[in-house]
């Protein structure tokens, strides 16, 4: 029965057999970090602070990640190891509700911290642990990914222990609101860069290993 | 004890065969997949996999659609509602028997 359970989980694992899941997460985090960097280091009148530019950037980023992943699946994965169409799960709504609730809680906490001028650079650095916890699902299936998980922990600890001046410099002369300190913004930006980079590296390694160990059949027939 | 023995005899033999059980379990977890995916996951050769799929198709558990992906032929497989019910029933009976 245990083996049957393993077989039933195989299609779920197949979703990231080519590393596309990690590549998408890495690309998302790094592109978001780039947007944040542009907002932190450009004058308030710059295009990166306008609503329509933000909308276009988010739309372009989402389209790039969505269709980029689909293109890899269509032109590489499905040709090598086959096509899978997943069932629409009702659990998606639960996940969406939990995400929305968490986002509201974080927003409320941020607003409170800004109002009372709390120092939140360390919580911002430790926020990365949420990503690390999410990564455990990949590490449980592929053992070398525990190295990436350890790198995530090390990155989080390093950024949490970085001197305040270093974090300050990352978001120095920021025009991005006045409610949050440049130290907190620097910690936030660094978290996205560290995790984005690690997800991307993990995705690239997974993708290369997939290409190395699989080959497209000459022609499928039954 | 008698009930347990009876439960074993009532197990669906079409699904019970290891190869077909693997195919049914993989198809149960997805909406549809192609022949290549099943071949990759089960490690069976084309002939063996094809004969198992034919058996499941004859039992009315699997629907097979032959199509093309560009110029390459593609065989799409889908575990229909009868197949899903049979698989769920098989798991229930197996649990009962064990």
Shape of chain B: elongated
Count of DSSP strands of chain A: 1
Strand proportion of chain B, as a percent range, falls in 15-25%
Radius of gyration of chain B: 15 Å
Number of H/I helices of chain A? 9
Strand content of chain A: under 5%
Low-confidence stretches of chain A: none
* N/C terminus separation of chain A: 30 Å
Helical content of chain A stands at over 70%
The value of Rg of chain A in angstroms is 20 Å
Uncertain stretches of chain B: none
Q: For the report, how would you describe the main beta sheet of chain A?
A: none
Coarse structural class of chain B: alpha+beta
> Based on CA inertia axes, which overall geometry of chain A fits?
globular
Short description:
The complex is a heterodimer of chains A (222) and B (98). Chain A has helices spanning 2-14, 20-40, 51-81, 91-115, 121-126, 128-141, 145-161, 164-170, 182-213; one strand spanning 84-85.
Could you walk me through the main structural features you see in this protein, from its secondary elements to its overall organization?
- The complex is a heterodimer of chains A (222) and B (98).
- Chain A is mainly alpha-helical and 222 residues long.
- Chain A has 9 helices and 1 strand.
- In chain A, α7 (145-161) packs antiparallel against α9 (182-213) and α8 (164-170) packs across α9 (182-213).
- The radius of gyration of chain A is 20 Å and the shape is globular.
- Chain B has 98 residues and is an alpha+beta fold.
- Chain B is 62% helix and 19% strand.
- Chain B contains 6 helices and 3 strands.
- Chain B has helices at 2-9, 13-16, 18-28, 35-42, 46-58, 81-97, and strands at 32-34, 62-69, 72-79.
- Chain B has a 3-stranded antiparallel beta sheet with strand order 1-3-2.
- In chain B, α1 packs antiparallel against α6 and α3 (18-28) packs across α5 (46-58).
- β1 (84-85) of chain A pairs antiparallel with β1 (32-34) of chain B.
């Amino acid at each position: 029965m245990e083996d049957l359970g393993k077989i039933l989980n195989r299609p779920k694992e197949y979703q990231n057999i080519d590393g596309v899941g990690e590549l998408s997460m890495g690309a998302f985090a790094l592109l978001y970090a780039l947007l944040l960097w542009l907002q932190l280091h450009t004058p308030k009148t710059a295009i990166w602070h306008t609503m329509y530019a933000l909308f276009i950037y988010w739309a372009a980023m989402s389209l790039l990640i969505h269709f980029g992943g689909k293109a890899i699946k269509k032109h590489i994965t499905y040709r090598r190891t086959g096509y899978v169409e997943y069932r629409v799960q009702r659990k998606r709504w639960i996940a969406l509700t939990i995400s929305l609730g968490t986002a509201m809680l974080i927003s409320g906490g941020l607003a409170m911290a800004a109002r009372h001028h709390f120092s939140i650079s360390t919580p911002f650095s430790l926020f990365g642990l949420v990503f690390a916890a999410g990564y455990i699902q990949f590490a449980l299936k592929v053992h070398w990914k525990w190295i990436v998980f350890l790198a995530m922990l090390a990155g989080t600890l390093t950024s949490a222990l970085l001197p305040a001046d270093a974090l300050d410099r990352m978001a120095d002369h920021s025009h991005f609101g006045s409610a949050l300190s440049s130290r907190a913004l620097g910690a936030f930006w660094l978290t996205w860069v560290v995790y984005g980079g690690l997800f991307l590296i993990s995705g690239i390694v997974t993708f290369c290993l997939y290409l190395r160990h699989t080959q497209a059949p000459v022609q499928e027939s039954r | 004890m008698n009930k347990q023995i009876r439960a074993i005899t009532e197990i669906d033999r079409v699904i019970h065969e290891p190869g077909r059980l693997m195919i049914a379990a993989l198809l149960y977890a997805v909406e549809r997949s192609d022949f290549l995916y099943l071949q990759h996951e089960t490690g069976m050769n084309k002939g063996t996999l094809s004969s198992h799929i034919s058996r499941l198709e004859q039992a009315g558990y699997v629907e097979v659609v032959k199509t093309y992906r560009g110029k390459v032929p593609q065989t799409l497989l889908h575990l229909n509602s009868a197949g899903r019910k049979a698989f769920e029933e098989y798991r229930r009976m197996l649990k009962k028997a064990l």
